Input
Amino acid sequence: MLEVGTSRAGTEPASRFLTTVDEVTVLLGTSADKADSQYSGDARTALLGRVAEINKAADAGDQQALYVQQYLLDRIYRLHTKLTDRETAEGSVVAHEIGRLLETATAEAQDRLIEPGLLEEAPTEPRAYLSWLKKTAREHRVYKHPYYHEFIRNRATEADLRNYVMQESVVDGRFDDLLAMMQVGTAGAAKMEIAANFWDEMGNGDHAQVHTTLFNKIFEVFEIPDEELERSLTANSLLNGNLAVLLCRYRSLYPEAVGFLGMTEWMAPDRFVQVVHAWERLGLPEVGIVYHRLHITIDSQHAQGWFHNVVLPAAESPRMRRAIARGILWRLNASATYLDERMPSVTG
Output
């Protein structure tokens, strides 16, 4: 079972949460019918109450609780995003209820990070709105963050890059699946743009060039086993990955997904330039940096197409404008917290 750790805030096990973590983990590994039969009435109420306590502690700033919250949400998302030959609780009512508690608390925490009144400042004219989105991103503290521009570029060691790629795997390692989830129900120019983006991720039909395959080459260079990857993910890494899945899997959150993934691609080229520089500085094998080299160019093209073919048409709608901006701010704020977390290795 889980040895509960945190990001960088500390390493003492959160023993008061371990029983709940183990209990939910076992539940997720049983059939849906068995899980719902075992957890009914008072037993279900008690379990949901313990999950609510984790959310309450995370909301109060407990980093151990945040880790547990995001760990459990990640495990629930795996029911819907991973193929397995084992029995799972996919389709379970109680598993869904646990997931909704965790999702709601996660979403509320992200909304509290948005500066009051900022969403109301967005222009109503689509092109002015798009300019405002980019300006908001450029003025955010995450833009050209020193983690990339100072640390990764000039100071990161091979061990630092090894840890970096493990943390980044929660989004970069499954971007194709995120696109596949978010495009359901779309039509017209937006669907075509997402499809073109997805086909690029699929290596334009060449299995050897599939982007997740290229990304996994980095794991081969560093000889990273699955077990180490599991242990190494921090609370904020899990959070960034969970936010992407949350926004892409629900149709009601499609516009937030447009903002979140669009901003992810818009920021990637500048960040990857710094990673490539570090890779070359350290003389690491070329096969491991192909993914990042490719995305310096292709994500610039994707971001441009995304903004003009997905965001601009949607920006005619007041609801869509607000929701897209919300998704962008979730990405900016969550990324900033994650990168701030990485910075102690620079100064410490």
In short: DSSP finds 17 helices and no strands in the chain. The mean pLDDT is 92. Residues 36 and 93 are 6 Å apart (CA to CA). Residues 120-347 form a domain with the Heme Oxygenase; Chain A fold (CATH 1.20.910.10).
